[in-house]
Amino acid sequence: MLKMNIEDGVYRISFYKVRRLNTLIAEPLRDELSKIVTKPGREVILSLDGINFIDSSGFQAIMSVVDQANKADCQFRISDVSQEVYELLKLMKLSFVFEIHPGKTRSLSGVA
Questions:
Q1: Distances from the Cα of 85 to the Cα of 5, 8, 67, 95, 103, angstroms
Q2: Domain locations in the chain?
Q3: What are phi and psi of 85, to 5 degrees?
Q4: Is 49 exposed, middle or buried (0-12, 13-18, 19+ CB in 10 A)?
Q5: pLDDT tens for residues 40-80?
Q6: What pLDDT is recorded for position 102?
């Protein structure tokens, strides 16, 4: 379900064979990301490449991870957001809650 690469100290998390972030995926996603973002000073990028739909449980899982990352002083970003998902974020007025990088993000300081 999830793939993780660590490059130059940056944790890049992506989905494997997942197109919809829904109830079936939300809890395992939250659990796995929580283990990563609770370490102070970590830099984490969640790639939504290939994800074309997120339901309310998926958004709640991501918001929970964002909250945990903030409490742990971990930098958490979202990248590779499809137009469909971005429209959902805007519709739900969440586009300002998450730090979103629309393209491939190599590091937290820049967009590739």
A1: 23, 28, 20, 10, 13
A2: 2-101
A3: -70, -40
A4: exposed
A5: 999 999 999 999 999 999 999 999 999 999 999 999 999 89
A6: 60
Residue 101 CB contacts under 8 Å (≥ 6 apart), including other chains: 45, 77, 78, 79, 80, 81, 111
Amino acid residing at 74 = C
The pLDDT value recorded for residue 64 is 95
pLDDT band at 101 (very low <50, low <70, confident <90, very high): low
24: Cβ contacts below 8 Å, ≥ 6 apart: none
Q: State the average pLDDT over residues 79-103.
A: 78
CATH superfamily of 2-101: STAS domain (3.30.750.24)
3-class secondary-structure state, position 109: coil
The three-state DSSP-derived secondary structure of 2-49 is EEEEEECCEEEEEECCCCEECHHHHHHHHHHHHHHHCCCCCEEEEECC
